[in-house]
Amino acid sequence: MRVAVIDLGTNTSNLLLAEAADGRCRIIRQSKEYVRLGDQKIAENLLSREGIQRATDAVKKQVQLSRNFAAEVITIIATSAVREAKNQTELVEKIGLETGIFPEIVTGDREAELIFKGVLLAFRQLPEPVMILDIGGGSNEIILGHHNRILWKESFPAGMSRVVSRFTLSDPLTSAETTILADYLQNIHASAIRQARRLGVQTVIGCSGAFDTLADIADQVNPGEKQRTAQEIPPDIFYRIVRQLLSSTRQQRLSMKGMDRVRLDLIVPAVILIEKIISETGIQRIYQTDFALREGVLYETITPDSAITLPQ
What we know:
By secondary structure, this protein is of the alpha/beta class. It has 2 domains: 2-105, ATPase, nucleotide binding domain (Nucleotidyltransferase, domain 5), CATH 3.30.420; 124-293, Exopolyphosphatase. Domain 2 (Nucleotidyltransferase, domain 5, 2-Layer Sandwich), CATH 3.30.420. Helices cover 44% and strands 22% of the residues. The chain has helices at residues 49-68, 80-83, 88-99, 108-123, 160-166, 175-188, 190-199, 209-219, 235-246, 250-254, 267-281, 293-302, and strands at 2-8, 12-21, 24-34, 73-78, 104-105, 130-135, 140-146, 149-156, 203-207, 231-232, 285-289. A hairpin with a 3-residue loop joins β1 (2-8) and β2. The model has no long low-confidence stretch (mean pLDDT 93).
């Protein structure tokens, strides 16, 4: 069976094409389109007219690619920017009428569950408690899991597009602004930090967005050039990149090998969040994976009766 999953996020619309059979899958193609739903209207929980048009054009293109691929199942998932938008119906109906497929708007809990399943598809097993961290434009999902069990999960409406729209930041960031952002992000994600401490979590698995950029900078490859199921980022390399990013101007980031232009303004607060979570929890190991929400949908498609234990 040929499967297509479109993840309509705050910054990008991401396409996954795969073949699935007998509980196994083969990923054929991954691509993304820049939609920037998290533009100046995100602070008002609105989708701008321009953002709606960009998203519709991108999804139409990806649906056509999926049909050219002869996908038997095409799923469109819409996340934070859409679910929080007061005018979400306008986007859903426009995409549905123009493509014949209406996006499914998932809750934060459902998004976290799909991300966990995507990570399971990559790692196969989680022999010790881990934190899974997906930093998005509209929201951040944090899941604590062990084996095939979700121990705790929460979706935080503090994605990086929302953060940069809330604060006026210097270029480069001042030390005072770095402290303000770190305190702000720590306070918002305090419940996740407490739970990770309680469970003695030593490993963070980062998926999507900022972690992809960190891995690309570490490997000195262009964005999207290297596909990764799971890759460790040694702490010394992580902190070297953090120092480099925190002291950089926007123009300097533009010339960095591995920097995705979509994340020029978002990567700095993202690494502040990652560093704060690591320092507050005592996490020792950092992994990056390309597998996240789209792969979670794929996981459910190929293993519909899979036993994922959810927290009570």
